[in-house]
Amino acid sequence: MRLHVGYVRVARQVATLSLLLPCLLAGCGQQDAASANAAAAAVAQPALQGFSGPLRPGLYKIVQTGDADEETERCLTADTLAKGGYVSARDVQPGWTVIRNRASGGVIDFEASGPAKGKMSFKGRYTATGFTLDAVLSFEHKGQPMTLNNHQVGTFQSADCGEVAE
Fold first, then answer.
1. Disulfide: which of 88, 115, 125, 131 matches 48 by Cβ 3.0-4.6 Å?
2. pLDDT of 58-104, one tens digit each?
């Protein structure tokens, strides 16, 4: 696995600062940027504006581009979505405070603050079977401010999450 920028390498070393490491930085792997961008474009949802129904629970394929390109899977449970949230309470690591956790009316809006002046936000839109969002993680490491910016496109794969746990 190759890390493509120095601050991603540092961010990985301080992974305990992250709230949703699997969603934002898991692996910090470098894919071929062209294929990652092509995959994201291929699964992008064209009609995200104005959707007001619920996001469908189940397994989602997530293509992330930006400071930490990757492709991963994530299970969004019916329980979390029924509560109007996007992030499961069990994904919130000790020391982090959730400020907002909303997935309703076609909008995803999550924000949390944590150790080392840590801040994380996910802002985006969704349909019943997909979402796009911008993810930002900022924190201090050895007195230096660090910020990671990513764009995620999630596409519904299956109602059965299988071995992928939220």
1. 125
2. 999 999 999 999 999 999 999 999 999 998 888 888 899 999 999 99
